[in-house]
Amino acid sequence: MNSTYRGQVVAANGEPLRNVQVVSIGELARNSIADGGFRVLPENLPTRTDDAGGFSMTGVPAKAWMCFADPHHGFAAHRYAELRDRQKIRLQPWGGL
Length: 97
Known about the structure:
Oligomer: single chain
Helix content: under 10%
Strand order of the largest sheet: 5-2-7-8
Structural class: mainly beta
Distance between the termini: 38 Å
Shape: globular
C-alpha cells in the first residue's frame, strides 16, 4: 500500500531545516551517499524541505525507508512504518572514522 507522508525536518537542536534532501528507498534498492547527499534515482521519490523544514511525499511504499540528509546538519533514516505517527524528524550529526 502506497500513501502520502508529511513531516518536518529539524536539526539536533530543534531548528527547522530548509533544503534538506528527502528520499524513499525500497527494500531491495541500492543507493549511496556522497558529499552529504544521496545519489538520487527517480524511483526514490526525491524532494527537498521547504523554508519551514516541511515536506510531503506521495506514493511511498509501506516497507520503504525514508532517508533525510543535509551536508551540514546530518542524516536520519527510518522505516516508513515507524514515521506514520511522527511529525518531526531530527537529524543526527554525521559521524567520522
